[in-house]
Design goal:
It is globular and about 40 Å long. A hairpin with a 4-residue loop joins strand 4 and strand 5. The chain is mainly alpha-helical and 192 residues long.
Length: 192
């Protein structure tokens, strides 16, 4: 189940556009989810930028109390590096079981403290994730669960996930506004 181009045989010139086909659970298990776990530091970098340059990016960080408090929980001290390096990934055949709810409900993703663990269910995610935004949505979801490991509540984790979804979408779209703001903020940093 690979993405396919829209033929545009009606003369509209749609060839080359990707359709919204879902990523198979096999591809999620073999490629997408392990890559997100391996490259989670990219999500950390984006979130750290948001924390350091709250109103430089899109102006939506400073005005979002849940996002600001979630970022502070992730970046209070250096423990996030240790937790990220120790975090284990599990991918069950069925759903993840969220051990943090009273009824132990089934979920597409969950976290578990102790030995820091993030569970991502290829079977559940295959029903939702499309090829077009797979990497960005999975990274945002992974960082949602990681933020819980760092003490974020559900509102804070949702704000982090929403911020990353929008940020990564803008990067995929090549938003010149987003890129130019980042470049000007980064170039204004002086190194002693």
């Amino acid at each position: 189940n690979q993405p396919t181009a829209i033929a545009g045989n009606d003369g509209s010139g749609g060839g080359g556009l990707l359709n919204e086909s879902k990523v198979s659970k096999e591809n999620l298990r073999q490629y997408y989810i392990p890559d997100v776990h391996k490259y989670a530091f990219i999500g950390i970098d984006i979130l750290e930028f948001a924390r350091l340059y709250r109103d430089t990016d899109r102006g939506d960080v400073e005005n979002n109390g849940a996002l600001v408090s979630g970022l502070e929980k992730i970046f209070s001290g250096d423990s996030w590096r240790e937790v990220l390096n120790k975090t284990q990934l599990i991918m069950p055949d069925a759903a993840c079981i969220d051990p943090n709810t009273k009824k132990k409900k089934e979920a597409a993703a969950s976290f578990q403290n102790g030995v820091p663990t993030i569970c991502m269910s290829p079977a559940k995610l295959a029903k939702k994730i499309t090829y077009v935004l797979a990497k960005s949505q999975l990274l945002a979801l992974y960082m949602h669960e990681f933020s819980h490991l760092m003490g974020a509540n559900e509102d804070e984790a949702n704000a982090i996930q929403q911020y990353l979804n929008l940020d990564l979408f803008l990067q995929n779209e090549g938003s010149s506004l987003n890129i130019s703001y980042r470049q000007s903020a980064i170039s204004s940093v002086s190194y002693a």
